[in-house]
Amino acid sequence: MYKVDVSPDPKEVAAIEARRNREKDRQSRFFNVRTRVMGVDVKALNSQVEERKLREATEQSKEAAYGTYQMQYDLVAQMLEKEQAERTRRLARKVQEFREQKQQLKNRQELDFWDPGRFCMEFPGRFGDSDPYYGPASLQCFAGEDLDRAACLKMQQEQFKYSLERQLQEQRQVKVDEKCSDMLNDQLRLAMDMRATQLAKLEESCRVAMMSAMANANKAQAAELAERQRREHQREQEANFMEIQNQITSDLLTENPQVAQHPVAPHRVLPYCWKGMTPEQRTAIRKVQEVQRHEKEAQRQAEQALDVKWENQALHSAQAAMELEEQERELCAEFRRGLGSFNQQLAMEQKAQQNYLNSIIYTNQPTTQYHLQFNTSSR
């Protein structure tokens, strides 16, 4: 395998460093003697309270901004719905006007399937020759006859003119509708642009309001913290002043020995009001201390004598150990001399045996023929 140097991921390195820093902070809090003795991390609790308040203020600001955005979006949706409904009403009104003006019953050219005898009633079979009621079965109407040619041509021309005028009017109406739709699209686009501009302004104002709210909240928290510190300092100063005044006015700093006397047991004293011992007590204590000093001197002299005895005994023990070590060294030297002579004798015997083997037993060296014969016999 090839060793490839891969650069670590920056995100992973940052995460590891953050975890390491958090662990260091946690260890510093845990190994703090005061915090461990008190059993609670006041600084961490205060920081958690401050973080929770800041988080709540941020969430309230976000909720207010979201509410503002929701109201803006609702207004935009309502405006768009109104515009769509108005566009639908205008289109329906135009379609109805077109139907009323251009699609009347008198101008239609389609066959009414519910009234198939309409053309028969409007155009009778025959008005020439003899009887107007002659039909094709009377052999009076033949193919190719056109008694009303002039009227038919005039009617066709009128119909063609009407169709042409209607096509021109439809084209003009299409152009007008296109212009109207373009104008409406332009107006809608302008309205959307204006609405987007208004939304951007509102968003900017909301962001500024949120930032100002956060700044005000931070200022309020800073002011509250400063006020709390000022009150604590003032309370501490008042407590110190009261303590100094109590110390000055109380019997603690006076020289009255009667203050230390116990009201119930006269032979006992009050420790917090005791002003010191009397001269008789000091004299008795000095006598006792002198007796203790003499006893301590005698004890020290006895300990010195005992130490001298122990030192003499240790000296004798060391001399005996040195004699034993000297005897041990002599025995070891004698043993090494005997072992050396024994090894020398053994070496001479081995050398004589090797000379015997080399001069008498291993005199004949095997030849190549011996090896070939040995290999053939072994096969």
Task: Give an account of the 3D structure.
With 379 residues, the chain is mostly helical. It has 7 helices and no strands. α3 (42-102) runs antiparallel to α5. The relative contact order is 0.03.
What is the radius of gyration?
A: 65 Å
Q: Give unreliable regions as ranges.
A: none
What form results from the Cα inertia axes?
flat
For the termini, the CA-CA separation is: 49 Å
Give the tally of β-strands.
Answer: 0
Strand content: under 5%
Order of helices and strands: HHHHHHH
The total of helices stands at 7
Mean pLDDT: 78
Helix content: over 70%
The largest sheet, given as strand count, sense and whether it forms a barrel, is: none
Judged by helices, strands and strand pairing, the structural class is mainly alpha
List keywords for this structure.
single chain; 379 residues; mainly alpha; 76% helix
Question: How would you sum up this structure in a few lines?
Answer:
The chain is an all-alpha fold and 379 residues long.
SSE layout:
Layout: H1 10-30, H2 33-38, H3 42-102, H4 118-122, H5 149-249, H6 279-361, H7 368-378
